[in-house]
């Protein structure tokens, strides 16, 4: 993890101080201390349970200090919201603190992450409780005033998500260097649906808590939530296994063909830009990213001396290297979760005019994923430095892709990449330490090493 900037540390400290100020008026509220302690203990217990049973997989990409961009709900979220429905705002803020401070943290600095999470949740809980009480939600809960209680609970959920969104966006800007124009994009909507579900569970807990059956009956609400989280955790473990498989394959390719280290990750990222512009659903877009990352995995079957040859390839050597899509397809054919990505690995060197390889497919015969990866592959090749040339500016690379659209590339995929980069810019996750070309609105990201000249007949100068 990159060092946390001083401004990010100041931001975390200010968040923690704001949370402390929210909890300070607690003695004047005459809150039921027994309920406060019970809720706080339950919240801490839920967080401990989550840390021991569900702490699988790595921190989401780009999560940084926040750990969960968008305020992704945790095992204790219904408990915090139930406290917000029943307790005054200072008490609700206090309830969130023990669980957050005891949360399991894998990345350093651990104390900073715990303080951040505690302050963030305390402020969100305070806002949720304030919104709920401002609408007389507590009386609605006590009298089971349906459906008005749903209105007040909904307002609390929205306030909870808004605070998480505002704070998460700020930490992404300061700690993760995410551009301001995109830091908050989608955070609120991604958190609203899951938090709304947890809000309903919290509302059920609050109603049962005040029922004749007491707090014990409220705990029964957590049982179905526990089962759902267990299923969710199993999904994430499976997903983590998939990611580990892909990382191992990519690392093997990078070790074997050091000239293009980092190329695979950037092709996967460019493929995702195209996928978003094409309107692909999240599941297909993720498989397409896998296709981009693994498109050159077949190089593991090519002799290393050919991949690292300093001079031009002979026709026989070229034919051997041009077998790498078929090698790659054979390697991944048994990996079920790759789905459509397997056809992209096999056909990403096909061309619309039929002059590509390995089978010389034309136009619509080429799978959609392969047409996407072909564009992403050529784009990264042109915007990466080689031993015989500097990286092209992104604008020049896009112009070259447009020139070759219709013959070599699918015009729809090229247009999608142009639109996506105009909208989001090009900020590759894997870069090299080289100054971008002056005047380029989308600075290129050259890889660590380069490819010798004469290895390919096409315009981009890369190997087959």
Task: Write up this protein.
The protein has 464 residues and is mostly helical. The protein folds into 2 domains: 215 residues, no CATH class; 186 residues, Hypothetical protein af1432. It is built from 20 helices and no strands. The radius of gyration is 26 Å and the shape is elongated. Keywords: Membrane, Transmembrane, Transmembrane helix. This is HD-GYP domain-containing protein.
CA gyration radius, whole angstroms: 26 Å
Overall mean pLDDT: 80
Number of domains: 2
Assembly state here?
A: single chain
Report, as a whole number of angstroms, the end-to-end distance.
Answer: 35 Å
Strand content: under 5%
Helix content: 55-70%
The low-confidence parts are 52-73, 432-464
Main sheet properties: none
Number of strands: 0
What's the SSE blueprint?
Elements: H1 6-23, H2 33-53, H3 77-86, H4 89-101, H5 110-134, H6 137-142, H7 148-176, H8 180-183, H9 187-209, H10 215-219, H11 222-256, H12 263-278, H13 282-294, H14 304-307, H15 315-321, H16 324-332, H17 341-347, H18 368-382, H19 394-404, H20 411-424
Short characterization:
The protein is mostly helical.
Give me some keywords for this one.
mainly alpha, HD/PDEase_dom, HD-GYP domain-containing protein, disordered C terminus, Hypothetical protein af1432, transmembrane, 464 residues, 61% helix, transmembrane helix, 2 domains, single chain, Cyclic_di-GMP/3'3'-cGAMP_PDE
